[in-house]
Specification:
There is one protein chain. The chain is α/β, with parallel strands linked by helices and about 450 residues long. It folds into three domains: about 120 residues, 3-Layer(aba) Sandwich (Rossmann fold), CATH 3.40.50; about 180 residues, 3-Layer(aba) Sandwich (Rossmann fold), CATH 3.40.50; about 140 residues, Helicase, Ruva Protein, domain 3 (Orthogonal Bundle). Helix content is about 45%, strand content about 15%. The strands form five sheets. A five-stranded parallel β-sheet has the order 2-1-3-4-5, with helices on both faces. A five-stranded parallel β-sheet has the order 7-10-13-6-14. A two-stranded antiparallel sheet has the order 8-9. Helix 4 links the parallel strand 4 and strand 5. Helix 14 packs across helix 16. The chain is globular, with a radius of gyration of 26 Å. The protein starts with 6 loop residues before the first strand and ends in an 8-residue tail after the last helix.
Length: about 450
């Protein structure tokens, strides 16, 4: 890329950052013009041509994103990279909706900024088409048929997914296990300009730390014991597409450091190679951990967190989605039952049970419940008696605990014990060892209690 022919407009009200950035870019061969507020930037754009706009967010004249809106409306052919020291979800989403090329957080390393600029110039993205009114709930549901739900939480989610899909911005999806994070990641990819290229799922729990570089970046024959042939890494497979890192919070510290450079600079070096490989990849990541807490505790790199969480989407647990539970139950029943099945639906009592149950395993648990009951149901409707023991127990608990004066102490203690086990297993995602430690029991002791109460730890994973 001949940098001598590219002109960059830098708009930032911090003199030191503005002048230092301009000087470094000039040393790289770019021509730079600097202004200190959005009004000056708009004036300069009307008089001169530029190949890229590098803009701060929080500066005079841009408190309502005036430069972004003007720049993307009148000069949509000019890619824009945003750099801000005060990030927020609303500003990030609006910036993405307007069609910016990248959204970076100060302090940003110059190598990362340079990579973002080169990428934006090489692969400019189209401005998102403006409309007088946002899409209606009906339009959003039609646009994303793979996402089931009509609750307020899901409609808000669909609106965010609709806005971010067309951009290249990295996305972090968080939420409890089983809430559908991979479905949302796939929807973002499918409705993006990258849809024709690969969506590569990378399970961070399945890659041994010692093989992380080889699996992710690839290796050449003979580079280590067992490398019997050249191997292309997973990031090469999704060049031009999307890399979905599932369970990101489980990534060891050493692997986090190796991933950071690939995310920042879109380059990596295969094991045994000396020449770096350049890719154009969007990173969408998911975790059920609170990554900000992990950063605060020193277990997750802050710089990697900020680079991957430009847009942060939090998925609501199923218990907070109202009658979406019933929509999903109908969806899974229709999808999973055999063609010759006599089942036509659910009894009223079963639907009431679905509404009241806490669903610690979320959508994954609901799917498993439907699949199980399709096999076991005897009539044309799924009854409460067809449901797993823990759900029937939850129904019994609801009735019995409201009538404590009419049951024995032993029964009341059994109900409380069952409720406690459900809560502890949910907290520890069904991991017996962790749940047993909290309960002050041995693993064998906890397993005995679970068997006694008909509770399956797998339903909480």
């Amino acid at each position: 890329m001949n940098k001598q022919s590219y002109r960059i407009l830098i708009a930032d009200d911090e003199p030191l950052y503005r002048n230092t950035t301009a000087e470094l870019l000039r040393e790289e061969g770019y021509e730079c013009v600097c202004v200190e507020d959005a009004n000056d930037a708009i004036d300069v754009l009307s008089e001169h041509s530029f190949d890229l706009i590098l803009s701060d967010l929080n500066m005079p004249g841009n408190l309502k994103l005036e430069l972004l809106k003007e720049g993307r409306t009148k000069y949509s052919h000019i890619p824009m990279v945003v750099v801000t020291g005060a990030p927020s979800i609303p500003s990030a989403i609006e910036s993405v909706r307007l069609g910016i090329a990248d959204y970076l957080l100060k302090p940003v390393k110059f190598e990362e900024l340079l990579s973002a600029i080169e990428r934006a110039i090489r692969h400019p993205i189209a401005k998102i088409v403006e409309t007088d009114t946002p899409p209606s709930p009906v339009e959003l549901r039609k646009h994303f048929p793979e996402i089931i739900g009509e609750s307020a939480a899901m409609l808000e989610l669909l609106d965010i997914v609709d806005r971010v899909a067309a951009s290249n911005t990295n996305v972090l999806i968080t939420g409890e296990s089983g809430t559908g994070k991979e479905v949302i990641a796939q929807a973002i990819h499918n409705h993006s300009p990258r849809a024709k290229n690969a969506f590569q799922v990378i399970d961070c729990t399945a890659i041994p730390e010692s093989l992380f570089e080889s699996v992710l970046f690839g290796h050449v024959k003979g580079s280590f014991t067992g490398a019997i042939k050249n191997q292309m890494g997973l990031l090469r497979h999704c060049d031009g597409g999307t890399a979905f890192f599932d369970e990101l919070g489980e990534l060891p510290a050493a692997s986090q450091a190796k991933l950071l450079r690939a995310v920042q600079e879109q380059t990596f070096t295969p094991v045994g190679e000396s020449k770096p490989v350049q890719v154009d990849t969007r990173f969408v990541c998911a975790t059920n951990r609170d990554l900000q807490s992990e950063v605060d505790a020193g277990r997750f790199r802050q710089d990697l967190f900020y680079r991957l969480a430009v847009i942060h989407i939090e998925l609501a647990p199923l218990r907070e989605r109202g009658d979406d539970i019933l929509l999903l139950a109908d969806f899974f029943l229709e999808r999973l039952r055999p063609k010759d099945s006599p089942l036509t639906g659910f009894s009223v009592e079963t639907l009431d049970c679905f509404r009241r149950y806490r669903w610690p395993g979320n959508i994954r648990e609901l799917r498993n419940v439907i699949e199980r009951t399709i096999t076991l149901a005897r009539g044309t409707e799924i009854e409460v008696s067809d449901l797993p023991p823990q759900m029937q127990s939850a129904e019994e608990d609801r009735v019995d605990l409201s009538l404590l004066s009419e049951i024995s102490r032993d029964e009341a203690l059994d109900n409380a014990d069952r409720a406690y086990l459900n809560v502890v297993l949910k907290k520890h995602n069904g991991v017996i060892a962790s749940a047993a430690r909290q309960a002050g029991l041995s693993r064998q002791g906890l397993n005995k209690l679970l068997k006694r109460h008909g509770i399956e730890a797998d339903d909480f994973r």
